[in-house]
Amino acid sequence: MRRIFIFSLFVLSILLTTTACQQGTSGEETDSSGHHDHATENVAEGQTSAKPLSPRTNAMANIGAAHVHINYSSPSVRGRTIWGGLVAFDQVWVTGAHSATSIDFNKDVSINNQTIPAGTYGFFTIPGKEEWTLILNKNYKQHLADDYSQAEDLLRLQVVPEQLPEIMEALTYEVQPLAEEDNKGIISVMWEYKKVSFEVEVL
Questions:
Q1: Domain map of the chain by residue range?
Q2: CB-based contact 75:99 (threshold 8 Å)
Q3: What are phi and psi for residue 85, nearest 5 degrees?
Q4: pLDDT digits (tens, 9 = 90+) for 127-144
């Protein structure tokens, strides 16, 4: 009788262990050896994933009577070689990450003595070792420069980049009105040790 009782307890413990394991695997992934992936389990329990490496952000300001609004993705240096490495020289660059950087003017402006009608434009650059080309393109709804077409350029402007005294870890745009002239301002983009800028005049 005692042997039967011990045997019954043994069988019951096996059944309970098997059932528990089956219940545990219903919400978990297993690797090729059948071990539970507890990293997957933690995400399922409500842990959030890491922050995006190139978060979408904005830069904006009023220049005179005009509102300038820039929407862009902001990658970080993270110890990488940027110019001539992550960003190739002499190739069209989205000047950010992911979707194209867009610049919106709610009034007509002038850039390099060229009239830019009120509207939203894609902002691209062609970084060079000594000189950059800044581009306003009619198509701002595109991923990276995948659909970029020079035929849709509204403006091309050659500028010489400045050297920043300290590293700018995250790519950053700035819109700054000029205090001495109510209808003029400067748009700048800075990353790593480089800065490029252009002047905007509100018409």
A1: 2-44, 56-202
A2: no
A3: -125, -95
A4: 999 999 999 999 999 998
